[in-house]
Input
Amino acid sequence: MPLPPYRHMPGVNARPDEAFFAAVKASVPAATADETGAENVAWRYGLRLVNAGFYWEAHEVLEPVWLNAAPNSRERHLVQAVIHLANGLLKQAMGRPGASLRLAELCRGAFAGAFPSGSGRLMGIDYADAVSAVDALAQGRTDIRLSMRDEI
Output
């Protein structure tokens, strides 16, 4: 999937056409699971959007992935954490560091739910990478990349 034509900034520019995301949203599997993370097109695309600075768009794509994860599952916590990360980065880009810091703490809590042992890998995301990303967000940095590891 190509990247959107522009980054949406609430209050600054128009929302992207919903049709742009229709295909990727339609690809969301009925169940978000660790075992199928590598094949989950919306999950992978959502991570790509975060890494490319399309934070609002990442939230749009990842929301149905989150909804299709089992309640209170590690997968649901993980997707929620990435959504918080994207929203925190969006707030940082909008010049709202206080909101970004609050979202970093929500993100940290969601990552703790995804990685209760404080280690491991889930849906291709390594615990150490998750911690580094939320630490960077809490420090106000935007040089954050959250990538799937080759082995899931």
Observations:
- The beta strands are 121-122, 125-126.
- The two ends are 21 Å apart (CA to CA).
